[in-house]
Amino acid sequence: MPGAKARAIVNRAGQLWAFAVAMKEGDLVVMPRKLTSQLALGRVTGPYRYQKLGEEDRHTRPVSWERPDVPRTAFEQDLLHSFGAFMTVCNISRNDAERRVAVVLAGKEDPGPRVGLGNAKKPGVSPPVIEPEEVPDLGQLAHDQIVAHIQARFAGHALATLVDAVLQADGWVTKVSPPGADGGVDILGGRGSLGLDEPRLCVQVKSQNSPADVTVYRTLQGTMQTYKAEQGLLVCWGGFNKVVLAESRQGHFSVRLWDSRDVVEAIYRTYEHLPAEIQAELPLKRVWMLVPEDTEA
Known about the structure:
Layout: H1 6-22, E1 28-33, E2 38-44, E3 49-53, E4 56-60, E5 63-71, H2 77-83, H3 97-105, H4 138-153, H5 157-169, E6 173-176, E7 187-191, E8 197-206, H6 214-226, E9 231-236, H7 242-248, E10 255-258, H8 260-270, H9 276-281
Parallel strand pairs: 8-9, 9-10
Antiparallel strand pairs: 1-2, 2-5, 3-4, 6-7, 7-8
């Protein structure tokens, strides 16, 4: 690491130590998935190895990913704060993290920290790394707070109303189905002053916190045929399972998938053009910040 600063060297050495030595078989692993706004949960299944993978030599640990598509909304804000650490490898020990991750891994809701538990760590030698809570990813932290706010204020059919406002700000002329049975479509959209011009759009919105399965995706495709719509948008707050993601590649030019991150990004893009009542329910302010140095390996 020629020219690296002392703090960067300590961070990188500490992360490698944690990955190769401190991490034990059976330990829980949480890996944020940046592209899908989900978390992969699993357990370490074997020892550290430095081995060639393809054309490169890599530090490796085998992991059984038992739940690869857990939505970030499955965890409360305190753990999301820790999961948003800049460091690639770190030990999350605060707020009863191990027990809570195990509960979510078992398919249950995050129970939150036990009262009066404290932040005691397991006995043993600690790796020389900075606690992850000291160097959080502020962008991810802000995103998680916005997601939590939207989840609380725009639950159920209200999420369809929010998505509709975003689409209108993007130039679509839309019609929202009333609450209740919607026949497989929550929003119909078109271009032109009356919304009669092509392309025509069918939108299905799911406010659930669990990933949508392929049945929902295929239902939207059928609805598009019924309404003779050229484009479809499937919104699921909790994301999508791997079957949906795989099948959606074939429909790349006809259907788009939005999870909570995509919805928030669309809100950022159109916020100034959203109705005043939406802005009142979701007050946001643009903030610029300096990216911290030497926090990543």
